[in-house]
Amino acid sequence: MTTSAQETALACIDSIQPLLSAWTRTIFDFGETAWREYQSAAWYVERLKREGFSVEEGSGGMPTAFCAHWTNGDGPTVGMYAEYDAVPGNCQDAVTVKQPRPGLGVEAGGHTDPHSGLGIGSLGGLLAAKAAMLEHRIKGTLRFTGEPAEKVRGSKPIHAAKGYYDGLAGMISFHPFYMLPLCNTARWDTHCGAAYAMIYRFICDEPENWARAAGDSAPIPQAHSAVRAPGANDALMMMYMASKALRDSMLTHQGGWSISEAILTAGQATADNLPAGLAEIQYMIRVPTIAMAEQVTAVLDRNAEAAARMSGCRYERHWVSKSRPGLANHAMAEITCAALSTVGAPQWSKEAKAIAREVQVNAGGEATENPFIDELERLITPQEAEAILRRDLPPSQTNSTSDDYTDMSWHAPTSRFYVARPALRSANGHAYPAWVMNALGGIPATIDPMVTCAAKTVALTALRLLEDKAARDAAMDEFVKRTGGGVGGSNWLAPLCDYEPPINFRWPEYVTTPRGRDWWIPSLPPHDT
Q1: Residue 123 in contact with residue 47, Cβ under 8 Å?
Q2: Contact, 361 vs 197, CB < 8 A?
Q3: CB 276 within 8 Å of CB 231
Q4: Runs of H (alpha helix) within 409-527
Q5: Which of 152, 345, 359, 419 has its CA 20 to 30 A from that of 320?
Q6: Mean pLDDT of 372-380
Q7: What letter would DSSP give residue 274?
Q8: pTM here?
Q9: How far is 69 from 142, CA to CA, in rounded Å?
Q10: pLDDT tens, 270-317?
Q11: Per residue in 127-154, pLDDT tens?
Q12: Rounded to whole angstroms, how far apart are CA atoms 448 and 17?
């Protein structure tokens, strides 16, 4: 049964639904990537200020982060947050065909999860909770953080280390569904694992010593055929190949771990007779435990040192993220799932299904009567989802996959819940390309049901924490028990962040030049027809 305040919140979301739809599309069209979400962060800051929130911009030393507060008197503080970073190489317009957003190439940023809907869903819940608190004179504070660079696990370990999650009665973490069985449910016991991300930078700043060691007595090479230092590119390639070759030997073959890498452009685009002076490669390690992350890091460090020595370079390691594995809280999961049950699973209209069938055909598949998978419009309990999730995991593994909301879970009772995003049914085993999910995440008719459902669930969860002291205390008691005394307790994991925000690397971004506004990889001109 909903309270009168919760009814007010639900009505508020229904009334602002057209705004939530428009705002989702705004962030989708920005398509800004990690550490460079300037327009997106500015949009949130302006919106929150207009809604009466006090906002700290650039929180934690991150230019595209923020921390907002709104207080209605002494009472508990409830936390929520927005993410808004997109992914390079996924520029897709909100249309039913494969097509980048106007004026850009496919290499530009685009929303995949989509964080555009994630952030606005949480924002809708925040605004509805505020409206209900005002109308029903509910005491308490709402805290809303802006979390950039989630795709590289960027902001949350930093915010955690600098105290932005301290003092919360509860943290509400929403994410669009991305894997079965976690659709329209909350995590129970098996939360996400640890994640380490780092950049190895190779520098060739004394190439003359290589030539001298090779016996070239000439002070200045006189010909393009003269010996030259291998340079930073060669160091990077040796690092890349050595780490690929040793990947199977870094950890035992269980636990669902993964290691991925991205070569960052360092600015040398002219193939002159000079050694490359700088090259960078980023690694992301997703593992169940911190010990596994440390073990992989030690191997990568050895590889980097060896590659640098072989190529006459030096190397540096710079942290992007060190994120802890997640901590369960059954009481918080139950509060959120009760809210989700009240709201109900999202439902898709005839218009949305017609659009989805058009996408099915345009993506090389067959149109089906119901183009969406069945799970999208169903609820599943956390316990049922947990049982399915555990089928493929060894009993000893307590965490699986990766997401940096986990850092919040060590500072406050945290619920992690998922609402269905549009996903197409496959006929005859057809595999859909990535642009399909990206497009459906931007088309209002297909993404709005998720945003509305998430906003209502966030609002009802927040109000339950504010109004129901027994439920709030149960969540905190469980948090204290699991951590061995709360923050600083005997079983508590302290923040791992011992680095400054990695904002000054060559992260890809949009640029403005005499050619106009473009992605850092120039868009190709249209083909002649």
Answers
A1: yes
A2: no
A3: yes
A4: 434-440, 444-467, 469-483
A5: 419
A6: 97
A7: S
A8: 0.94
A9: 6
A10: 677 788 889 999 999 999 999 999 999 999 999 999 999 999 999 999
A11: 999 999 999 999 999 999 999 999 999 9
A12: 8
